[in-house]
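Person: Show me a sequence?

Helper:
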Amino acid sequence: MTAALRLRQLLDQLAPVALRDRLHALPPYKAWIVLAALGLFSGLSASPIHFFPSLVVGLTGLVWMLDRSMDMKKPGLSGFWRSFLFAWAYLGIGVFWVAFAFWNRGGVYVFFGPLVAIGGGAFLAAFWGVAGAVYAKLNLRGPVRVLAFAVLFLAAEAAKGLPFTQFPWNLPAHVFPAGGAVSQSAAWFGAWGLSFLVLLLFASPAALAGRGGEVQRRLPVMISLLVLAALYAGGTLRLGQAEVTYQPDVVFRLVNVDIDQQEKWAPGGEDVVRARYLELTASDGIDDVTHVIWPEGALPLFLIEDSASISALTEILTQDQVLLAGTPRRERAGDGGVRYYNALVAIRFAEDRPRVLGLYDKVLLVPFGEFIPLGEVISSFGVRSLQESVEGYSHGSEFITLDDTGAPTFFPMICYEAVFTGIVEQVAVRPDWILNISNDAWFGPTAGPRQHLNSTRYRAIETGLPIIRSASRGFSGVVDTYGRMPVRIDRRYNGITDIRLPMPGAPTLYSITSGVLFWLFYILSIFVVSAIVIREQLRK
């Protein structure tokens, strides 16, 4: 056999139709293994790797495997389990860092860590399973099935990320690093719009194997390549025109203390942590600083009530300076009990009489981190929320801006509130910048802090607002209005960084229209798919 003939045979085996047929011929147990493998491989597309071709392979393979479900006796059931197995591996590997927080806490939590990570991944995967069941039931065979796939699986992402779990982690859009060329499209139609395009474009190679003429089958791939090229070119042009200027007379000091959670919460830990924060805050150059920023839950105590901390700060911040700090706080409830909040407080230090300028109570709380889902059931196993200062936090009442702190008006976001798109637009007056404080120390050297940072940077692109970020053992620094980081501080840095605040950019198309471009395209896609499904039903 000649080398040319062997090459021809190899190419024939790698042809889309041949690959699809080989997947369709797999016995059930091998199909499950392949689906899990495709899901794990697709996980390489998430931060910090961002190998987006892996998601192209994964989604294309999933579509082909779901095509096989259409021929099963129970297509809906088959479609559910095939999508579920893929998503359990894909979504599960992306959030397995959650287990590290439980291991970090120790005790009974070590046992619950893997269970929460595996069980949580399965719960998230169930939404993809429902989308797969509907896809299989539609029984579409031509190129339009790729559009149906994108419509259904974006709906699954929205369902798992918003009303049910409030955990929109690792959206399909996040395969592109924030601040890069393609990510700039979030300024036009948001992270959800880019996620829809990712599902549609990355699954388009599946159309190469299916019903339709050769031109029909190739057209989705050709259009996808053109759209990706347009996104890259448009983003490159936007970045090429980027200009960043800075606010005058405002200097922030970011204080980063590198300390283990066990040491922080050990007996006497509050004195150790307080001493480190105070020592760094008082470092050289403090007289030139207007604002000091401490991250979420910097001290393991109620800062507003702690006379030792406040007294020490009055000796350091003597120039009418403002401390912006994360802290737990408590207040009496109407029923005589006590409610606890994860808060951000602004305190001005002037003439030895500190004054609270503003408070923000976190609205969107983290399951297990700040409250226990199914509290009585899970608490019976001896599990409390991971933070140790209180048994659980209450939700803040509303999103706000703080505008009397000596700095331009800002929108506070505590921890993972920054992964939610569209909440900055809920306040009446557009802020000048966003302050994101976080405690990423629970998640150690895992992918969690990097994924959190990447998602947060998308908020700057969507809103056209700069972000100042202070994260305990996370990535701190400055995010400009294009999602880039002119100042990036490593998660294990111990020290201070004095920074300037970028000016806000012009309101983006996304922030002005609330993503109307995305909604128009998505609704149009639903109508197209519905019309073709109805037509196919009438032909039968």
